[in-house]
Specification:
Blueprint lengths: L1 H18 L12 E2 L4 E3 L6 E7 L2 E6 L9 E8 L6 H15 L4 E10 L2 E12 L4 E12 L2 E10 L7 H9 L2 E2 L2
Antiparallel strand pairs: 1-2, 2-10, 3-4, 4-5, 5-9, 6-7, 7-8, 8-9
Helix pairs in contact: 1-2
Amino acid sequence: MKSNRSLRVLLWSMLVTAILPVGAKLSAPKAVQSAKGYSITPPAGWTMHQNGIMGADMFVAAPPAKGYAANINVVIVPAAPGETLEKDAVKIPQMMPRVLSGYKKLSHSYGTLGGLRALTITANHKMGTPPRLLWMKQVLVLRKGQAYVFTCTALHENHADYRGAFETALKSVRWTN
């Protein structure tokens, strides 16, 4: 099924980018324009990677704190025929426990991202050895036959420290074509 394949690719990409170790030199990123139709301004002082790190179109990470680098990644996959945000609000939380250990949806809501209607899901899941509790916020937009997922991830214990950086980056999103 194409719908399930796209969702599995999307979920796998989010999983892999959430655990990517970060040890590169820090830079002060400016607005980044993707060839895939959006721009985003990452938080200053975070390390930027583009094009293909473990399936993400864009990946930006904070300096590690408490052994983990909070991060934002963007994954873009073809939208399934008939896919809607309402269907995704049901499907994503049903599939995530198969991909992420200890997945627990905390909330979902609808709003906008870059002026387009968006679905936001917040959740916790466990990762690593020993398992650590992570917090993530996913913002999904369906646009021009593509599903754009912006995922913000941090340790649950200090995710509040990154909320301002996450929100500022998400508010900077613009659609470029």
